[in-house]
């Protein structure tokens, strides 16, 4: 497990924290956030290569706050792998053993097992400079695990891989985690990676954690406007609450409102359903006009003006064509109240 308590790091142009984070024993946890939000600084604090200004860090029930990196029992894999270019694959994998306290024969047996498990046997004599992106990631993973760390940190390990390797390495992380039960803290920009791999996630914004929870809960029930935007809600609209009814400004969308002071209605674009103006079935919905259409291949994103409010919707490009939707066309929007999340 990793327990971070009131961690703060002060740098000339950036302040991290205070951050509290609890990654349970054997958990796969993802730290998400936009660029520059402080994700890597948290990993660097755990591994011990950044000077912290306050707080405590525990790894597997040991207070490691003042310890040098090699005594923390933490392995790390970086986005660019950071392999030693002058060493072979085998020497890269064995590199950490010389600084490690455990017995060398255990270390070598573990390396043999990792080489087998990660399919690296045929590459051991190769120079790491000749490897593909996916192969480099597997070598970096073997090197990080060679010293039997109790926790593994992954710093955007999938970001620079092409989609084919990305899938392969994602599957590898998943099976390795399942088989070894190691605690993993992974940093990523990508909500899909987090959704596929993580049991829980934390969303970081400007050096602070805005929300922690299961990937599903954060995706469906973001706690703040920032998180809603980050998880792709696309429509975060100011709303008024009056006499137990919530009205989304301009949209004539009246919803029963629970007690509380909600002031935003967040709606995913796939939950905005569009019909032609002259559609014969069902209720009329909210009148709107298509302002723009961005074709993204399988899907198209539409911006629709409805009483001065811009509402984003996505639909299959094939449906868009069937319905003959074009820029300027008049449409009706339907939004199920159950799909409106209040913030
Ligand atoms: N050694 C340093 N000295 C000064 N500022 C730094 C240092 N390291 C990081 N920063 C700054 O701290 C902020 C957070 O950096 P960090 O690398 O943790 O962000 P990140 O969320 O990992 O971003 P990215 O997703 O782009 O990697 C950034 O503004 C960065 O420029």
From TrEMBL:
It holds the Pfam family ABC_tran. Keywords: ATP-binding, Nucleotide-binding, Transport. Residues 2-231 form the ABC transporter domain. InterPro entries: AAA+_ATPase, ABC_SmlMolc_Importer, ABC_transporter-like_ATP-bd, ABC_transporter-like_CS, Mo/tungstate-bd_C_term_dom, P-loop_NTPase, Transp-assoc_OB_typ2. GO terms for molecular function: ATP binding; ATP hydrolysis activity; transmembrane transporter activity. SUPFAM superfamilies: MOP-like, P-loop containing nucleoside triphosphate hydrolases. GO terms for cellular component: ATP-binding cassette (ABC) transporter complex. It comes from the Bacteria. PANTHER family: SPERMIDINE/PUTRESCINE IMPORT ATP-BINDING PROTEIN POTA (PTHR42781), SPERMIDINE_PUTRESCINE IMPORT ATP-BINDING PROTEIN POTA (PTHR42781:SF4). This is Sulfate ABC transporter ATP-binding protein.
């Amino acid at each position: 497990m990793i327990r971070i308590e009131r961690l703060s790091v002060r740098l000339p142009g950036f302040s991290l924290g205070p951050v509290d984070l609890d990654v349970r024993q054997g958990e796969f946890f993802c730290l998400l956030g936009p660029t520059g939000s402080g994700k890597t600084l948290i990993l660097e604090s755990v591994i011990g290569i950044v000077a912290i200004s306050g707080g405590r860090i525990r790894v597997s029930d040991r207070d490691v706050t003042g310890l040098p990196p090699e005594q923390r029992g933490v392995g790390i894999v970086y986005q660019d792998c950071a392999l030693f270019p002058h060493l072979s694959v085998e020497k890269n994998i064995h590199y950490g053993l010389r600084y490690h306290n455990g017995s060398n024969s255990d270390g070598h047996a573990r390396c043999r097992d990792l080489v087998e498990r990660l399919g690296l046997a045929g590459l051991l004599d190769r120079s790491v400079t000749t490897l593909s992106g996916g192969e480099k990631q597997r070598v970096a993973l073997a090197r990080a695990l060679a010293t039997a760390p109790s926790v593994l940190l992954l710093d955007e390990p999938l970001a620079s891989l092409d989609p084919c390797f990305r899938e392969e390495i994602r599957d590898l992380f998943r099976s390795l985690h399942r088989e070894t039960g190691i605690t993993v803290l992974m940093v990523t920009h990508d909500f899909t990676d987090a959704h596929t791999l993580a049991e829980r996630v934390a969303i970081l914004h400007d050096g602070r954690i805005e929300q922690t929870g299961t990937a599903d809960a954060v995706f469906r029930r973001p706690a703040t406007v920032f998180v809603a935007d980050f998880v792709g809600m696309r429509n975060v609209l100011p709303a008024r609450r009056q006499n137990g009814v919530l009205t989304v400004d301009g949209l004539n969308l009246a919803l029963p409102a629970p007690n509380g002071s909600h002031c935003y209605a967040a709606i995913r674009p796939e939950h905005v359903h569009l019909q032609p103006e002259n559609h014969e079935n069902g209720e009329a919905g909210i009148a709107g006009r298509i302002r723009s259409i961005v074709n993204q291949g399988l899907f198209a994103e539409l911006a629709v003006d409805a009483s001065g409010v811009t509402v984003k919707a996505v639909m299959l490009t094939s449906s868009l064509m069937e319905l003959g939707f074009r820029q300027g066309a008049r449409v009706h929007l339907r939004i199920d109240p159950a799909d409106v999340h209040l913030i």
